[in-house]
Amino acid sequence: MHAPVRDLEAHGQGAPLSAVAKLDGILAGLNPEQRRGVVTTEGPVLVLAGAGSGKTRVITVRIAHLLAKGVDPRAILALTFTNKAAAEMRERVAGLVGKASAEPLTLGTFHAFCLKLLKEHGTLLGYPRGFTICDSSDQIAVLRGALRELRVAETSIQPGALHSRISLEKNKLVSAAAFLGKAADDREELIGKAWLRYEEHLLRAQHGLRRSAAERGQAPRGSSQVKQALAAR
Ligand SMILES: Nc1ncnc2c1ncn2[C@@H]1O[C@H](COP(=O)(O)OP(=O)(O)O)[C@@H](O)[C@H]1O
Ligand SMILES: [Mg+2]
Fold it and tell me: What is the value of pTM for the model shown?
């Protein structure tokens, strides 16, 4: 008889998923809703269910199913909110398809994945390879500086409010230049100008940091160095 999926998932180093029969066995261990979530591979699928009800199992078996169908593992992306969930996902997928087959999958947190993308392609945005990430207090400090340079009183636009607005616009994929271009009033124009200046400062801090780190023959270390570079201006 087929081994239950729970056992297959539990053993972190399961045998490679070679036979279709094995996949059938795995699918047989799902309830009808789970199975539908697994075999519906065209178009979006939303699985909404309570804790411990088998959502992760849908995702792990879905990945095994895609691999068994011949989908290139490099074309599969699985994102989680936490590192713990990502580790669990990797282990459970490995339990189903074997460690070697699970290895080329892109599986991690949103943050880790986005960081990896930026490390590989950030140069397209003008960032040096060894960029550092500013935390929100660094970001607010840079915005405060940008507002000061533009002689905007913090009572008229607060750095925190500016930060939120920029985040909101970025979520809509609006760039600083595009935002400034369609500014509807004086306030939006100021926000756009401060945003542009903010980006210039970030880029210059990163490049300045790279240069000075390179001069010292060291790799840049952390956001506190970006902060120092920004404060030094
Ligand atoms: N159809 C099923 N039959 C038996 N056990 C299941 C089934 N679906 C999930 N499980 C088991 O129930 C537990 C919770 O499943 P999991 O996928 O982690 O849930 P969720 O992600 O929704 O919290 C796991 O031990 C899993 O192996
Ligand atoms: Mg889960």
Answer: 0.72
